[in-house]
Amino acid sequence: VVKRQLSVNGSFSITHPELAALALSARQAGKQLILAGYGGTICCLSTAVEAMHRGIRLLWVADAYLACATASADEIETHRHLTGTMRIYADVMTTDALFDRINAALR
């Protein structure tokens, strides 16, 4: 169940002091952090890689980020590739599935 929301602007790293403290607390409690954000290919992916290397479990919300077109892929293709890559570093689910999980935990 979500108990705290943290928004860290301008930092693309789990080493941000406030985020690092939350991540350590989650790891010690055996909990997952929920990851979603604006820049999936930069912010979310770099955070997920760092978190995995630090033993922090993440749940990435696959439909709660922006996928930008690149020189070799449009937004849809970028989203598909990033979602596949994120499965290496985090559990992946949709917003609806996340809310279903939260609602089930509250019952």
Distance between the termini: 11 Å
Radius of gyration: 14 Å
- Briefly note the structural class of the backbone: alpha/beta
Strand content: 15-25%
Biggest sheet, spatial arrangement of strands: 1-2-3
| Low-pLDDT ranges | 1-5
Binned, the helix content reads 40-55%
Encode the helix/strand succession as letters: HEHEHEH
Main sheet attributes: strand count, strand direction, barrel closure:
3 strands, parallel
The shape is globular
The overall pLDDT, averaged over residues, is 81
Quaternary organisation: single chain
What is the strand tally? 3
Count, helices:
4
Structural notes for this entry:
The chain has 107 residues and is of the alpha/beta class. 50% of the residues lie in helices and 20% in strands. Strand 1 (32-39), helix 2 (40-53) and strand 2 (57-66) form a beta-alpha-beta unit. Helix 2 runs parallel beside helix 3. The chain is globular and about 40 Å long. The model is unreliable at 1-5 (pLDDT under 50).
Which descriptors would you attach to this protein?
4 helices, three-stranded parallel β-sheet, disordered N terminus, alpha/beta
Break the fold down into its secondary structure elements and pairings.
Blueprint: H1 17-29, E1 32-39, H2 40-53, E2 57-66, H3 75-89, E3 91-93, H4 95-106
Helix pairs in contact: 2-3
In short:
By secondary structure, the chain is of the alpha/beta class. It has helices spanning 17-29, 40-53, 75-89, 95-106, and strands at residues 32-39, 57-66, 91-93.
